[in-house]
User: Fold these one by one.
Assistant:
Number 1:
Amino acid sequence: MNLYADLCELLRVDQVTQNDAERMRHGQDESYHRPQLPDVVVFPESTDDVVAVLRYANDRRTPVVPFAVGSSLEGHVIPVRGGISLDMMRMNKIREIRRDDFLVCVEPGVCKEQLNAALKRYGLFFSVDPGADASMGGMAATNASGTTTVRYGVMRDQVRALEVALPDGRVIHTGSLAAKSSSGYHLNGLFVGSEGTLGVITELWLRVHGLPESVSAARATFSSIAACASTAVAVMGAGIPVARMELIDEPTMRGVNRYRNTSFPEAPTLFFEFHGNASGLQQDVSAVREIAEGEGCASFSVETTEEGRKRLWDSRHVSYPAFRAQFPGKRSLATDVCVPLTEFAAAVSYTRSLLDEAGMIGGIVGHAGDGNFHAQIIVDPDDPQDVGKAHDLTDRLVHYALTSGGTCTGEHGVGLGKRAYQSAEHGSSLELMRSIKQLIDPNNIMNPGKLVGD
Ligand SMILES: Cc1cc2nc3c(=O)[nH]c(=O)nc-3n(C[C@H](O)[C@H](O)[C@H](O)COP(=O)(O)OP(=O)(O)OC[C@H]3O[C@@H](n4cnc5c(N)ncnc54)[C@H](O)[C@@H]3O)c2cc1C
């Protein structure tokens, strides 16, 4: 079998490559996991192309790993058993916008910013907002979320219907365009979060939202992370419909100031965004200010202009590269646990104590309204002791989260990095998940060695 020659015959020559730079690009993601190269990279342009590749690969038991932007953080796209990296980014058309149904139909390679630019003309926006300009296919495959989840929900909440190419080449359609349904098993929910291990998503119908009439933002600084966390709980308890409520710790704020040449106070900070009409927003902002002051906030500033809001949110959005940029030549390991809201403050303090005890450099950011947070740990990928210490810390943090009733990953997904915790988290349900994988992909060609795989 000559994989490259066969695929060139199935598709066009310019849709298949064995170029070293492309294989390297498709052999890694944004994580610290060591790259492993695919044998060949294929660029499908239609569902038919995907089906042709899957039929071929299934017949020959060749691994297929869907690849989009490659922004995942747990080694999801690394082809640990070689084979085909299936780059979905040429399937990037917005097929239909149904304004009054608040729905959009897209190909999987459409990215967040591209979609929002197109929706703006219709007074709409797509709410899921991870830090990277990720693709709709990748975001669905990881059940991504981000800063706006506290108000609008995760990716699974936005997916109405999917077209999926199964490993044997069958194409199925899941869900419907209706806002709700009590009909049948929830297959949208199964494929969302399946990380390319069950099939290839070739089309998505997504829920979108009306652009709010007014938006304002605020920033509150505190003397401790614990005070940030208790403010977040109190805001949620008061039922204030914040659109974003994000936590950044002191070391991360320091990194942001250096990276952007800004002079934000270098203290534990909560960032807020409010969506609604002008008078409602004023009430929401005052209510949050009152709560923050009650929790002892050191400063509270409000941004109502678009420019001010952009500056404020830019500092949250760049926090990941900004922190890492302080340590050139190093990689970062981003932890991602989610706990019940009442456990959030203790879990964040525990993480800081683990970092300090281990003598490791790390910054903490969190989606404070969801109980989801990340420690970005700086590691030298060539120093096994350093990587080992970071793993040990992640391990302890995950076990802490699981014992608190939480999960080993709130949004980044399992990939390679969180496979070891699947049994501890899911117990006997893991066997059912493995049976589902076996039923849909009996030859184990789809992203083998990930999620529930060995
Ligand atoms: C700076 C930064 C900040 C981030 N912040 C967040 C955050 O706030 N929230 C969050 O959730 N994530 C965050 N992430 C992680 C990442 O952006 C998300 O996991 C995102 O959903 C990955 O999308 P992608 O297009 O890059 O997919 P990729 O990384 O290319 O792929 C991800 C997974 O999806 C599979 N896949 C891709 N396309 C398809 C398809 N069409 N069909 C089936 N499977 C497919 C792949 O096989 C892989 O398993 C962040 C990453 C970075 C670098």
Number 2:
Amino acid sequence: MSKAVPVIIAGAGPVGMVAAADLVRRGIPVTVLEKMNDLSLESRASTFHPPTLDMLDDLGFAEALIAQGIKAPTVQYSTSEDGELGTFNFSAIADLTRHPYRVQSEQFKLTRIICDALKSNPLFTIRFGTPITSVTQDADGVNVGLESNGSAEQCRCDWLIGADGASSIVRHTQQIEFDGFTWPERFLVMTTTFDFESARPGVSSVSYVADPVRWHFLLRIAGAWRVMMPVASEKSDDEATSDAYIQESMGSVVPKGAKFDIKHITLYRVHQRVAKSFRHGRTFLAGDAAHINNPLGGMGMNGGIHDALNLSNRLGRVILGQADEAALDSYDRQRRTVTMEAIQGDTIRNKRNLEARNESDRQQFRDQIREAYSDPEKGRKLLRRIAMFDSLERAASL
Ligand SMILES: Cc1cc2nc3c(=O)[nH]c(=O)nc-3n(C[C@H](O)[C@H](O)[C@H](O)COP(=O)(O)OP(=O)(O)OC[C@H]3O[C@@H](n4cnc5c(N)ncnc54)[C@H](O)[C@@H]3O)c2cc1C
């Protein structure tokens, strides 16, 4: 077994890479073990909220990320029967952030920006094609078993961060429960170059449309739009990704007879689950390894990045002898609590608002958005919550 390193991070997704960057910045050697042979290119999260951009700016990555994406200064809520209910501009909370807008830039751009910045740093090691297969720990450290080129290998570290996604081996080996539920419907994301700006004058780059049968969500990224909508549980995956179904689904959001292209589709199952604990001795969970949720509100990856920096700050101070190990205890208390209250709470509420069938629920949604739109204080409150300032403030208070 090789000599123990201070920190091993399982997974080179956005959460693992942000944690690595912050620890390296603090002068701490980090090894990232990634099971795939390269950084992922999957089309997944693409929303970065204002406080996340401030954090990435402190690490030196925001400028490049913004340059590769688009700025979305407003968020819009509509219903299919009433049209627009309210459009909210992040400039109303410009006093809270250096970035009063969302940035829509795919998560694979961030991981590449970070990897390029770190790769020549002697404190940073990344090993691709090395799936972690086992994790055991004792009072002084963690033994990590992995595979490399078909051979088994053992590494040792003082601390292990499990940022290895929803099926986390770190979580499994530490026998941490992952309670919650799976939504019956799947989510279909269609990426198209269709010009929604011309078809829906005044549409925001982030636009939620409530409808009791087929709610949808439009999100502009550089050079394209993503259209997200639910797929009923009765439809098979093959049916839901068939050309006929895609034409019908897009046909419900573009004007009758309009032509559109489809660049990419993703169909996926959505869960709401939170790990019973974000820490077990010398191992920690962050990001999707610790919590998964529906994408309405763009809180999963952002919350994961908030986990990563909360943890790297504490771990960094403990490793450098600037804080006692007790400082690690509040990671679970702070991040797990806000995951339950804010991230799970908000994403579930967002979905319920968009899909509401019952007239009183639908009216409540309309009233809430219209009131927030007409009252600047309520509008500011809504923006603070959806930009995740409230969850960060709540975490800091715990
Ligand atoms: C299909 C899909 C679509 C999504 N779309 C959206 C969206 O539109 N909007 C949104 O907000 N969110 C979306 N999400 C969620 C979002 O992508 C995640 O919240 C985000 O990726 C979390 O980052 P992470 O670093 O925690 O985990 P991940 O990005 O999953 O990264 C985990 C990394 O760990 C590696 N790994 C796994 N097991 C091991 C192992 N045993 N050993 C070593 N490495 C390992 C993986 O290869 C991966 O690189 C989507 C998720 C999925 C699955």
